[in-house]
Design a protein that fits this description.
alpha+beta; Dodecin subunit-like; 3-stranded antiparallel beta sheet; elongated
């Protein structure tokens, strides 16, 4: 039997929602092992006048818990 844990994270990018998501996963992968999947929960943006200046992507990131890991 395996167990998955879920984290809700929000990434911010000045480029795109895709970049916000990819950057968030890359940053999380630096400290979390066994990433398995993600679900995009929400996409929002900040605007200035008529232009989008920040893309925000909230994701639910899943990873498997390693039962054999030393404490």
């Amino acid at each position: 039997m395996s167990t998955e844990k879920h984290l809700r994270l929000t990434g911010i990018s000045e480029v795109s929602w895709k970049d916000a998501i990819a950057s968030t996963v890359a940053e999380a992968a630096k400290t979390i092992d066994y990433l398995t999947s993600l679900t995009v929960v929400e996409q929002t943006a900040k605007i200035n006048g008529k232009k989008i200046v920040e893309y925000h992507a909230t994701i639910d990131l899943s990873f498997t818990i390693d039962k054999d890991r030393d404490e």
